[in-house]
Amino acid sequence: MSIKNIISFDRWLIEQNPNFKTDDTHQNTHNKYTDRSMTTYIRNYLDHPSEDTNLPSSKSRNSPTPEEISQSIENVMKILKNNFQAKKSK
Question: With 0-12 CB in 10 A as exposed, 13-18 as middle and 19+ as buried, what is 9?
Answer without folding.
Answer: middle
